[in-house]
């Protein structure tokens, strides 16, 4: 297929020529000849734009070689003129930066005149060659698209219900006949053609509630064309960690990921993450058949994972997993007609009625009968949909085009387009979707061809590249970044990008191929030869490295790249983009290569060297006068060359995660710089950074480090967050008022007087007064949305915080470490405040919002949703007012370290409450409530016969109470607190708490630790949930943890007597309850949902029965040695898979000597634990290995601190399936078992902190071993292992060997220098 002619035409030529004319006329007002030429060029622009637009539309026409050559000449002339114009602009910036008057000489003017002459000449030839297109009728709809909002459309999926149900049933029922799934992990291929919805189906499965519940660890990895085991393993680690963070609701931080130099290191970390866990892994878009060797390497970390884990593989190859015994594949075809029409109709019409857009319905007198049956638009849409082959992606793309112009003529024109009849490797629907983009969007879209398949786009970075390339037309009203954001959002809205997470996006493979095909004459990828199947585009399109303007380097082979450059296979002269996607650990050759590139590629606008492992940036970087975007992120550079400071066009500099120790002194000359991506330390050492007045972001500014605070007033373009630190170093009289008042684009301001976090400042009255003056000078603009004041020691707030009409847009406020502040400013008057955090305000004793008495104020904190107060040691009460509504929207309340706080306003709509180290005696007394005004549902109040008026919190879902030493009860009686929607309750370190109220049936998690309870609470059998009365529903409690309750003696009262608990309780933990007795008739047998049971240090508790649902049990050694049994019919259960036994934490050395194993237990041993595959033993003193020889299914044995567990008697041979053996902290163990070699399945052996072990067994180690790790043992053991004459040859077959933290062998390759030399000598 030929390159698409004129793909850049209207957008690029219009932008460059318009800019050339405007700037030329501005710079050369006295050059009449040049001025005349520029005006003539401007007159030619409409005609040339019309011809190129017509050429682009005529894709079915076969252009001659001469016509293609003319187009290339025109493009080259435009690019050359752009470079000449950029040179003039560079000189202007240089004069401005260095403050000297030097006008460009006649040579420069002559060059510009020649460039204009060249363009004029080429345009004449072009007009002659393409004159046949004159008068071509313009196609309707090729106009600028209407602006769209930035909000992403809600994703909807049509159809695939059957496939989802099929896959979930396979996962739930054990994968049918697939033994690998039932015994370890299974592989489920999802196959189908490109764009048919394989990834969407995998996403539906991945995010299904059943999968989230049954697979605690989930990983999503995009594979694409290279099945690189190390890189895929690293991606799995990152994905698993991200999922874990999201599950724990931790704030995701963009931190540099660990880069694994070896596959073994990555596999070891992944194995630790997966050990004992059931996981789901999605390998999305696999392009080649997976061979058994690579698959074996990839799956090594899965061996210790829980059974019935699964790997989903999506691919276009029907037999992608044929060599690895997969489950029956799920083959996707196009959607059926009904589902496809629903999808297409949704994309094209949205929520509109098609009849409303039909010309047939616009007749006077009513709607025609034909419209009533089926509108004309629907008829046309149905015909178009029938040509798309059931492809969901095609429906979304073309439907998006149609939705923007619901005119019958427009739709009919698309239906009759010649593109439907062209035999093309790219779907006509994709071409049509591209065709109806406006000029700027086309150019921005095609630029994505520079990135590899499956690349994760960051919106901000891509937009910055568009700006650097000049794709965004200048505007006096908007920043180019804002225009670019709008372009990007429109491409998302049109389905050219697919959102992934947090401003990260992907491009579907077919859409990426479309961009590559359109830009094939400008974009060139230098890559290693791909293995397996090639991209369809690669088979049909020959990239021309000689005409390329944008090059992507995807190889680690520097020699191959150097050879191509030396042979002139790549023309560097006209390059505008170079993107590197390799890692070059040998930095010197790479820097030499860059130096040679910089000597030639002087037109570069975008240079991405991120994560290439480089240590130095060549000084020849100063040749790149046109450079606007430079990314050095994640490299090892410690300094930047002084020559960088001459790149006056530079707009973006990214040095994040670089260990920079110094920066060039003249960085402030980069006056065009708009974005510096750097850490706090790096940005703080930029000399006179405030001269960079075009900066859009400056996250950190050190006020006391050679920078004048007043100079911030000049940086009015700053936007986003700003952190001003070291304000305590500002001198008297240095600060002037109104420094930030004009910074209208700032959204977040953090003012800090103690950047080092040294705690409370010791200050005198003079410093207090100075702080007050400085804060008064830093009044922000009214547009500010977030304000944080840290370590301020003034006694009063600034005047601008006391004004009623100021900061009406603030949504978040943080007052931290303001130790002398005696009163709060009137924060309750802020109409949009949603989050308020107050911490370390030691002088504050009382909060009373008297300002609410104003007639104009009806509510206090009208929109506040979260309130957090911490470390207010003298605060005694926080009171509201009687004539105003207080906290009407507050959902989350956090009170910490306020030991004297006894009263707080009653807030009935709370959802989450956390009280820690607070002086409350009871909740009723703490919440300062007018109880006479509290109303409860009739069913609750009528059923309560208790004394006192109940306190209602009808919306609370979670409550956490900790370190409240005076808390006795929640109320005067068990029914005085009404919590109908409580889901989680945690009570810790409240030793005086003796009574809990009856809890609602909605409760799913209950944790009680270190409390004075004598009996467990009850679950209400009757109550209100969600406004609906619930009778006899029982409890939904699934997690119960009771610990350190010395007064608790019985389980027969309260929770365990209720039916609901028995059906739902899945996790039960009882710890350190010394008086708790076994007084349940049938033990835990009635807990039919119980999966995890922990009984630690409860010496009087013995369980006679448990249910067969139990999978994991953790008990203390004394629980076993004192005669605990699980009934005669089921001594232990066949269903248990994981057993953990720990030593008795309460037993002293004398008591340990008294521990004795009952004879009856010795007879029974653990022979009934036939399904156990994981056994963990920690600090046991009596248990020995011979008790466990019946565990024939054991895969993991972890021995930690068990001094007497291993004996010299050969007993390991019983564990024929053992794969992982870890022996740690056994300080009295003199030697390893001699029968280790009998473990024929052992793959990993870890010996750690066993100082008496001096040698490995004489009988050698098992031949199956793949990993050996030794640490903290006798030095003689290391000497023995490294003895090249004796023992090392016996263990050299093990692929991975690590001794005392030093990797001796990795991947079967020897790494130890001494051994390499010795073995080489011996061999010689």
Task: Provide keyphrases for this structure.
35 helices; 50 strands; disordered C terminus; 1324 residues; globular; alpha/beta; Disease resistance protein RGA3; 28% helix; seven-stranded parallel beta sheet
Sequence-ordered SSE layout with sheet pairings:
Blueprint: H1 9-27, H2 32-57, H3 65-98, H4 106-129, H5 161-172, H6 179-183, E1 185-191, H7 198-206, H8 209-214, E2 217-224, H9 229-247, H10 263-274, E3 279-286, H11 292-299, E4 309-315, E5 330-331, H12 337-349, H13 369-373, H14 376-386, H15 392-403, H16 408-415, H17 428-435, H18 439-446, E6 457-458, H19 459-469, H20 480-493, E7 498-501, E8 504-506, H21 509-518, E9 523-527, H22 536-540, E10 550-554, H23 558-566, E11 577-580, H24 587-600, E12 606-608, E13 629-631, E14 652-654, E15 675-677, H25 680-684, E16 700-702, E17 720-725, E18 746-752, H26 765-777, E19 786-790, E20 812-816, E21 835-839, E22 846-848, E23 859-860, E24 866-870, E25 877-879, E26 885-886, E27 892-898, E28 904-905, E29 912-918, H27 923-926, E30 927-928, H28 938-943, E31 951-952, E32 958-962, E33 977-978, E34 984-990, E35 1005-1011, E36 1022-1025, E37 1028-1031, E38 1039-1043, H29 1059-1064, E39 1067-1071, E40 1092-1096, E41 1112-1116, H30 1117-1121, E42 1138-1142, H31 1149-1154, H32 1159-1164, E43 1174-1178, E44 1196-1200, E45 1220-1224, E46 1244-1248, E47 1267-1271, H33 1275-1281, ...
Parallel strand pairs: 1-4, 1-5, 2-3, 3-4, 9-10, 10-11, 11-12, 12-13, 13-14, 14-15, 16-17, 17-18, 18-19, 19-20, 20-21, 21-24, 22-25, 23-26, 24-27, 27-29, 28-30, 29-32, 31-33, 32-34, 34-35, 35-38, 38-39, 39-40, 40-41, 41-42, 42-43, 43-44, 44-45, 45-46, 46-47, 47-48
Antiparallel strand pairs: 6-8, 7-8, 36-37, 48-49, 49-50
Helix pairs in contact: 1-2, 1-3, 1-18, 2-4, 3-4, 9-10, 9-11, 12-14, 12-15, 14-16, 15-17, 18-20, 19-20
